[in-house]
Amino acid sequence: MMSSEETTPPASTAPEEHTVAETTLNSDDEDALFEELERDDDLLAANLRERRIEELRREMLKAKEERETTHGTYDTLRNEKDVLQATTSIPKCVVHFAHKDFRRCVIMDRHLAELARKHPRTRFCKVSVEDAPFLVDRLKVKVLPCVISFIDGITVDRLIGFEEVGDKDDFPTSALEKRLAVSKVISVGPTHEDQRRPIFGFTTNTGDSESDNDD
Fold it and tell me: What is the pTM assigned to this prediction?
């Protein structure tokens, strides 16, 4: 007869070995998962960093463009070099050749400052004739105020005095705006009067004019 020791098989250690192996595998998986997450975090951080760099680059370019075009400002140029740079680096530019002691030049300054805010795509600036003697002679500036318009560095128009804007000191800014728009250095939409104007440009006769014609 077999003893109880012979018939009872020894306890197997396989389950314990399986459990240890499984624990080791899970630990490896966790390490791999953490490494993958770290890589994802690094990639995400890199993408965010690249995106932020691109945003900063765009902001810097915009700031540079605004500095170069001086959007909405009416600034004073110091010398002839500044005038040449302004008129050649900006597609559309209006330069007021002025003198600080001339009353009408001061009046023109106020109107141009207002137009500068309204038309930011065009640069508006002024220079004292005392600071630009060569350009004054070259451009034949003889009567002040003298406002010269430039497109792509080329002189396209000049306004001398107030004659073309009403020939009076209290002319409206709209008169100067309309006059400058002739050379397309600024763009102005149609006014209410223009929209009502007949196709051939003739105004409608009133009863008084008809009676005058009858006479």
Answer: 0.59
